[in-house]
Design goal:
The complex is a heterodimer. Chain A is α/β, with parallel strands linked by helices. Chain A has a domain at 4-260: Rossmann fold (3-Layer(aba) Sandwich). Chain A has helices at residues 48-55, 85-91, 113-124, 129-142, 148-151, 161-173, 191-208, 219-225, 243-248, 253-260, 326-333, 355-362, 382-393, 399-412, 429-441, 459-476, 487-493, 511-516, 521-529; strands at residues 4-17, 20-33, 37-41, 63-71, 78-79, 96-99, 179-183, 211-216, 228-233, 236-242, 276-288, 299-311, 315-319, 340-345, 348-349, 365-368, 447-451, 479-484, 496-501, 504-510. In chain A, strands 6-7-8-3-9-10 form a six-stranded mixed beta sheet, sandwiched between helices. A six-stranded mixed beta sheet of chain A has the order 16-17-18-13-19-20, sandwiched between helices. Chain A has a four-stranded antiparallel beta sheet with strand order 2-1-4-5, covered by helices on one side. In chain A, a hairpin with a 2-residue loop joins strand 19 and strand 20. In chain A, helix 3 (113-124) packs across helix 4 and helix 13 packs parallel to helix 15. By secondary structure, chain B is an all-alpha fold. Chain B has a domain at 90-258: MetI-like (MetI-like fold, Orthogonal Bundle). Chain B is built from eleven helices and no strands. Chain B has helices at 2-29, 43-52, 59-71, 86-121, 126-140, 143-157, 171-201, 204-211, 216-254, 259-269, 272-300. The longest helix of chain B has 39 residues, at 216-254. The chains are: A alpha/beta, B mainly alpha. Chain A binds chain B through residues 56, 58, 89-94, 97-98, 100, 102, 105-111, 119-120, 123-124, 155, 157, 168, 171, 290, and chain B through 203-205, 207-215, 222-223, 226-227, 300-303, 308.
Chain lengths: 537, 308
């Protein structure tokens, strides 16, 4: 193996918070060698970002790092925790560069792209004026920005998230660093864009021979991208080793749990003669773009003529990237949005029903949203949140009976019924999502719209929520509309899948058939991007 | 941009209409009239005067009359300064008020911005607490309290500066009114700049700038200053309105012959046309300055584009 480039040696990071000292990283040691990719893996709060930020010495003032971070990229080895501020600035952006998780906000919104790239060049190289501009242009070209000459003059808000991350990469590579720290660089991006960015990083790594310290929670990426892995839990390293070995034979229980947490299993089919519960024909949703006086408004059609049907007890997976119209479709099906086209629920035609006529049906169809933090009212106890629907749909229910139903619903989602007197902020993300599910279940619905219910959760928590959804479906004979961008989850849960792009269905069919033989190129691209092509069924 | 500007100017018409109408009727609702004085005028003379100025007609007729004249750009004669038209009085007073206002806005920015930045950079230090504490006092104490206090200390006790008068805008006469007028704005701007600077310094693109290897001064001057100033720029509209209303009081206290002083005296004298003229003029000015501020904002922030 080549010589070490960055050595983290017994690093400890404490945060002096008003409530006392919190240790984010303790006794962490690992080494990044020249030219290799080391993945730092862990769930939220594991300290992976803190330790990489410490290497750039960009920690907030409250943080107190201790130990050693040895850098071998300069003329002589030096400890990055001890070098002077001036030397540290020479290293940043020049010898070690960093890209971040938030491509939308990591560029200065008031400066043109060109200026932001040129700024690094003038800081660390002798390039000036038109020479620097030319170099910036060629960098943009290398990261795959079309029409780079013109893009130099663009502002960040004129670029998509993927393009902004490319610009960040161009900026990071401007001075050909020896080490690139990539902190969850693709987490905020759609899967197909993620795949493009990852392959771009691989190409550039080979061209420049740089090492990459890749921080991620996504084991799919790690498996395909990293040479070696270091697994972190609660600020400590639990296991490390070459990627293939670690995945084949994980030693530590936590690593095994993380690997097992990738969704498994398949949905058992329902009997053929099962009746349909939900059916839609030529469903269309459009939003007015801009209202103008004396002129007809322009419309944006978010859902463009979709047909679908779901049998009782089935799960329909609705898959697509951001802006594909999948959430809009889900909401239109439950008549939470105005739409055109026919919708039948059980034996009732929903289209044309007004709010009042819909109300008795509402208890039979419920929704669970993506954001477990934003979708529960912070001023109500969990019991009040869950019981609120009962006040509307079962107003005759006494207080005692209502409380009993709330307790039953909490028990259903495997939470202690005694928790109903507490407030949402006292619960973790996974627990909150269980509360959201209990809120839906208490009304004994037949149809549940699940809009990205697991996307905001850590992988290990996600697995338990998926297990729960599976059990509940079985127990209560529930029908799910499962919206997700995560193909692995959909594959594990759905009977049939509908792949959406730009408001249209590009492919639709039985889950197993669709995953084993995707016909449409877009579906194939999605699967490649989600690293599903390697997995045996 | 041009379309946007035109649209905003069109929108200003109903705004001004409402302002003018409300002021007109409120003023006529107030008891008394322009010819009430210490000395009662003989009834026939007063009737003559009233007839001469159409004040004997019903109020709605006077209103229509006034609006008709206004459309022709005629603000009418002053009832008190009988040799002058309102337009002449406004034209006479405005340069004085303008000079006072420009100095006050300039001083507010010149002192408020750096104070805010310093407080933000030295957050939770003694300097920060000192600046913010003083600013809080500045916000809380009204200018009609500050102005006489300033005059008392620097004019009467210390004798450094004149306690009043304009003297063709000589600088010793300017200092106290300008300071009194801008103290509240300095305080607001400092507080606003501090909060916005702290927010910007915590943002992701500042982290990026540091990760590029920039020195802290470069990070602040090149990357943090302009975005941090944006909220202050959008505050300039209300700030200017505040300075204009403030000047009404300050001009009165320091005896400065600007529009504000005419306004106060006109209101006391029920000099209907002069009050209305001042309202129309300042109303239009505030609308126009607000538009200018919004255009300036779009010039500073490329994410804001007025294209419709």
């Amino acid at each position: 193996m080549s010589q070490p480039l960055l050595e983290i040696d017994r690093l400890r990071v404490d945060f002096d918070l008003p409530g006392g000292t919190v240790t984010a990283v303790k006794d962490l040691s690992f080494t990044v060698h020249a030219g290799e990719t080391l993945a730092l893996v862990g769930e939220s709060g594991s300290g992976k970002s803190v330790s990489s930020t410490a290497a750039m010495r960009l920690l907030p003032e409250l943080a107190r790092p201790d130990g050693a971070i040895r850098w071998h990229g300069g003329q002589q080895p030096e400890d990055l925790l001890l070098v002077g501020a001036k030397r540290m600035r020479q290293i940043r952006g020049n010898e070690i560069s960093m890209i971040f998780q938030e491509p939308m906000t990591s560029l200065n919104p008031l400066h043109r792209i060109g200026r932001q790239i040129v700024e690094v060049l003038t800081k660390h190289t002798a390039l000036r004026g038109s020479a620097a501009r030319e170099r910036a242009c060629s960098l943009l070209e290398q990261v795959g920005i079309p029409d780079p000459e013109r893009r130099l003059g663009s502002y960040p808000h004129e670029l998509s998230g993927g393009q902004r991350q490319r610009v960040m990469i161009a900026m990071a590579l401007a001075c050909e660093p020896k080490l690139l720290i990539a902190d969850e660089p693709t987490t905020a991006l759609d899967v197909t864009v993620q795949a493009q960015i990852l392959s771009l990083l691989k190409d550039l790594q080979q061209r420049y021979g740089m090492a990459i310290l890749f921080i991620t929670h996504d084991l799919g990426i790690v498996r395909h991208f990293a040479d070696r892995v270091c697994v972190m839990q609660q600020g400590e390293r639990v296991e490390s080793g070459p990627t293939a070995e670690l995945f084949a034979d994980p030693q530590h229980a936590y690593t095994r749990m993380l690997i097992d947490a990738e969704p498994r299993g398949r949905k058992a089919p329902v009997p053929d003669q099962t009746p349909l519960l939900l059916e839609a024909h030529d469903l269309r949703v459009r939003f007015p773009m801009k209202k103008r006086l004396f002129r007809p408004a322009d419309y944006f059609e978010a859902v463009r003529g979709i047909d679908l049907s779901v049998k009782r007890g089935q799960t329909l997976g609705i898959v697509g990237e951001s802006g594909s119209g999948k959430s809009t479709l889900g909401r239109a099906l439950l008549r939470l949005l105005e739409s055109r086209g026919d919708i039948r629920f059980d034996d009732t035609a929903l289209d044309g029903l007004d709010t009042a006529a819909m109300r008795p049906l509402r208890s039979r169809m419920q929704v669970v949203f993506q954001d477990p933090f934003g979708s529960l009212s912070p001023r109500m106890t969990v019991g009040e949140i869950i019981g609120e629907g009962l006040r509307v749909h079962a107003p005759l229910l006494g207080r005692r009976e209502r409380d009993a139903r709330v307790q039953e619903a909490l028990a259903d989602v495997a939470l202690d019924p005694a928790m109903r007197h507490r407030y949402p902020h006292e619960f973790s993300g996974g627990q909150r999502q269980r509360i959201a599910i209990a809120r839906a279940l208490v009304l004994k619905p037949e149809l549940l719209l699940l809009d990205e219910p697991t996307s905001a959760l850590d992988r290990s928590v996600q697995a338990t929520v998926i297990e729960l959804l599976r059990d509940l479906q079985h127990k209560h004979d529930l029908t799910y509309l499962f919206i997700s961008h995560d193909l692995a989850v959909v594959r594990a849960l759905a009977d049939s899948v509908l792949v959406m792009k730009d408001g249209e269905v590009v492919e639709q069919g039985d889950t197993e058939a669709l995953f084993s033989q995707p016909r449409h190129t877009y579906t194939q691209e999605l699967m490649r991007a989600a690293f599903l092509d390697h997995q045996a069924a | 941009m041009l379309r946007y500007t035109l649209k905003r100017l069109l929108q200003a018409i109903p705004t001004l209409l409402i302002v003018i109408t409300l002021s007109f009727f409120l003023m006529h609702l107030a008891p008394g009239g322009p010819f009430d004085g210490e000395r009662q005028l003989p009834p026939e003379i007063e009737a003559n005067l009233m007839a001469n100025y159409h004040l004997d007609e019903p109020v709605w007729k006077q209103y229509l009359n006034y609006m008709g004249n206004l459309l022709q750009g005629d603000l009418g004669p002053s009832f008190k300064y009988k040799d002058f038209s309102v337009t002449e009085l406004v034209a006479q007073g405005f340069p004085v008020s303008l000079e006072l206002g420009i100095w006050a806005v300039g001083l507010a920015l010149l002192i408020g911005l750096p104070l805010g930045v310093i407080a933000a950079l030295r957050r939770n230090s003694t300097i920060d607490y000192l600046v913010m504490g003083t600013a809080l006092a500045g916000v809380a104490i009204p200018n009609f309290v500050i102005a006489p206090l300033l005059a008392l200390v620097f004019g009467v006790f210390l004798g450094w500066l004149p306690v009043g008068g304009w003297n063709e805008g000589a600088w010793p006469n300017l200092v106290l009114p300008v300071v009194a007028l801008s103290i509240q704005q300095i305080a607001y701007i400092a507080r606003m700049m501090r909060a916005s600077m702290i927010e910007v310094l915590g943002s992701h693109f500042i982290r990026t700038a540091r990760a590029k290897g920039l020195a802290e001064t470069e990070v602040i001057w090149r990357h943090a200053m302009r975005p941090a100033m944006l909220p202050v720029v959008s505050y300039l509209g209300p700030a200017i309105a505040g300075i204009i209303t403030g000047s009404v009081v300050i001009e009165q206290i320091f005896g400065i012959p600007g529009i504000g002083r005419y306004f106060v005296q006109a209101a006391l004298n029920r000099d209907y046309t002069l009050v209305m003229g001042t309202v129309v003029f300042y109303g239009a000015l505030i609308v126009l300055l607000n538009l200018l501020v919004d255009l300036l904002y779009s010039a500073l922030d490329p994410q804001i584009r007025y294209d419709d």
